[in-house]
Write a structure and sequence with these properties.
10 strands; 10 helices; Rossmann fold; five-stranded mixed β-sheet; 2 domains; single chain
């Protein structure tokens, strides 16, 4: 029994809210309260965030809830390669890991090496090199971000894309280094804007890279409403290519 490293799979993280006490008050705190004597190697994984036609109670992006809690590690892959490498790291970790997978991402394809590899937590990945503006994102919104980058390139705008991959721990160094390089930043997050991962990253940039900014940091998040069931309204409430491009142009031409 001592060698078991359990993986809990939620049908959706919306249902994980029913287990919030066990995750937040037990799993997250036991190692700390035992003075490190009790290891807590457990992975909670499953779909997170809006999908399609699931309405308000099944379309919530829960990452902010979990990222708020000391003792939990929160991981948000956006590609098959990252998902495999990060999941292997999560299973090896002696702390509870929240492993958030966008439900719409399960059909995405990408190169995954056959040989063994792991990806260290707290290491963001530059998905596109650029000099004009930094776009910071993670998880499912990476798709619309990369679509936006392609369209921006046609207008001569070169965006650097920082995929956080890991929210807690957070790769502050890569974030700040990119903003110091481009002097402008847009953060794309499918969670609600109030007290979100995006708002924290925005504060971090203003605190550690303020003198390098040529424009205020812009956030592109889901609208501050329960997600509608109507599909057109559902899409309108989430980050989109149009919203991202408008935010980029706002920080460029302010």
């Amino acid at each position: 029994m001592a060698g078991l490293r359990p993986i809990v799979e939620f049908m959706t993280f919306n249902f994980a809210l029913q287990a919030f006490d066990q995750i937040v008050n037990n799993a997250a705190k036991m190692r700390y309260m035992s003075g490190g004597q009790f290891k807590m190697p457990i992975v909670f994984r499953g779909p997170n965030g809006p999908a399609e036609y699931l309405s308000s109670q099944h379309s919530q992006a829960t990452q902010t809830f979990f990222a708020h809690v000391p003792g939990l590690k929160v991981i948000t892959p956006a590609t098959p390669y990252d998902a495999k490498g990060l999941l292997k790291t999560a299973i090896r970790d002696d702390n509870p890991v929240i492993f958030l997978e966008g439900e719409m991402m399960y059909s995405w394809e990408g190169e995954v090496p056959e040989e063994e590899y792991i990806i260290e937590f707290g290491k963001a990945d530059i998905k596109n090199e650029g000099n004009d503006v930094t776009i910071i994102t993670y998880s499912k919104p990476l798709k619309v971000v990369m679509e936006s980058v392609t369209l921006l390139e046609k207008e001569g705008i070169n965006a650097e894309v920082v995929d956080l991959r890991s929210i807690r721990p957070l790769d502050e160094e890569t974030i700040i280094k990119s903003v110091m390089k481009t002097n402008r930043c847009v953060i794309v997050d499918e969670s609600w804007p109030f007290v979100s991962v995006a708002s924290h990253v925005g504060w971090l940039i203003s605190n550690k890279a303020f003198d390098y900014l040529d424009a205020p940091v812009e956030l592109v998040t889901s609208e501050d409403v329960p997600l509608p069931y109507n599909h057109k309204l559902e899409l309108a409430a989430q980050p989109s290519v149009e919203k991202i491009i408008n935010a980029v142009k706002k920080v460029l031409y302010i």
